[in-house]
Design brief:
It contains three helices and eight strands; from the N terminus they run βββββββαβαα. The chain is of the alpha+beta class. The radius of gyration is 16 Å and the shape is globular.
Length: 185
Amino acid sequence: VQNRGPLALDAPSARAPWAPTSDPADATWQPLFAGADARRIFTYARPDGARVDLFVAYYVHQRQGAEVIHSANTMTGAKPWERIGSGTIVATLDGAPVTLATLRARRADRQRLVWYWYWVDGRFTSSPYVAKLWEVKAKLLGGERRAAVVAIAADYQDTPGEAARILRDFLDHVGAIGPVLARTD
């Protein structure tokens, strides 16, 4: 792999009422993905105060210790966040239904809902097993070798349903994510 310098990850576009903002919804939420060639959190806000953080960890070439699927990777990052629940949900990404992984996390004064998925061999999945299979297929048979993990997150007060409505609305207004990942280099 040639040394290209820092990667520039572009923020996916969003339609009104969502707009990018430079103020993160929560600067303490820092997912850990070892060996990523680039990682970035983009924040979007609506005029009513709703906010979503969009996290991307991008791998130009996966290698030992620098893999999108690795036991050391975590969506909650280091303290102060603690994982309190998980599951799946079906949402629309780039015009198609995709099963996303969900994670609920908390810290002393906040609760957060995270929806996340992997981009491997140019396709989306929330299954680490399917992602690994696609990675091996791309390596052996030729295919897209770049990979990423993408997550969106919103805080909630009483129930995760509050954040789920915000995340679903955000996905309804965000531009295509796959093409943004495909043109990163």
